Amino acid sequence: MSYLRNLLRWFEQQSRGRETTVIVAVSSVIVAIILFIVLPEIREFFEAGGPVLWGILMVTIIMWTLIIERFWFFQYLLPQKRLEIIDEWGSVNNKGDWFSMRMRDQMISEVSTETKRFLLTIETMMQILPLLGLLGTVVGMIKVFDVMTFFGTGNARLMASGVSQATIPTMAGLVAAISGLYIANLLKRKADDEIARIADQLIID
Fold first, then answer.
1. In this structure, are residues 195 and 111 in contact, taking their beta carbons and an 8 Å threshold?
2. Cα four-point dihedral sign 109, 113, 119, 124
3. What is the mean pLDDT of residues 87-116?
4. Helix axes 156-201, 52-72, angle to 10 degrees
5. What is the distance between the alpha carbons of residues 169 and 45, in angstroms, rounded to a whole number?
6. What gap in Å lies between CA 201 and CA 193, rounded to an integer?
7. Cβ neighbours of residue 4 under 8 Å, at least 6 residues apart?
8. pTM of the entire structure?
């Protein structure tokens, strides 16, 4: 019976986390679409940056969606999880024996898994963004060379379009990666601090 209750609680927590992630993701996409429609400067920027810039935008939206979800988790969901674990540990008898210590290790492991969720994905996306910017540079330079092949150096307008596609994605990728660098390190430190805090609160008699 206790196992079934714990299993149901786990499914509830998992579904709650997914709902939060979906809500944040949809909100981020809606905000990006509104900004794109309302501000003509943004449309011109993406047209000048080329197709790779759209990939950078999507990765950036996903990265910041996960970052916002992590802040939501630490602010609202983790305190409740901490209280549940402390109450569950308080109801355990013989806290110094082998079985209770394994239960304690399992509780800490569950908290560690939940607090560090998506952190590796966020760090991976931070590393992908500059590479996408470099891909945009390559695509833009290829366009410049194609223009030079067919028109020589006489068509400055087409060459400028290729140069824009070569430089704008690089800048956008670096800016997007830098924007998440400090936040990712902050979340990682906060996760480690929360795990240590909960471990300290599970006192062994």
1. yes
2. positive
3. 85
4. 20
5. 10
6. 12
7. none
8. 0.77
Q: Which amino acid, residue 108?
A: I
Q: What is the 3-state secondary structure (H, E, C) of the chain?
A: CHHHHHHHHHHHHHHHHHHHHHHHHHHHHHHHHHHHHHCHHHHHHHHHHCCHHHHHHHHHHHHHHHHHHHHHHHHHHHHHHHHHHHHHHHCCCCCCCHHHHHHHHHHHHHHHHHHCCCHHHHHHHHHHHHHHHHHHHHHHHHHHHHHHHHHCCCCHHHHHHHHHHHHHHHHHHHHHHHHHHHHHHHHHHHHHHHHHHHHHHCCCC
Side-chain half-sphere exposure of 28, counting CA atoms within 13 A: 19
Distance between CA 79 and CA 194 in Å, rounded?
A: 10
Percent of the chain topping pLDDT 70? 76
Q: List Cβ neighbours of 141 (8 Å cut-off, separation of 6 or more).
A: 162, 166
Structure tokens, 4: 């079934």
Write the single-letter amino acid at 167.
Answer: T
Q: Left (φ > 0), alpha (ψ -120 to 50) or beta: where does 138 sit?
A: alpha
* Site of tokens 């070569």: 166
Torsion angle of the four alpha carbons 22, 174, 54, 147, in this order, in degrees rounded to the nearest 10: -170
pLDDT tens figures, 6-39: 534 543 454 444 555 565 566 666 666 666 666 6
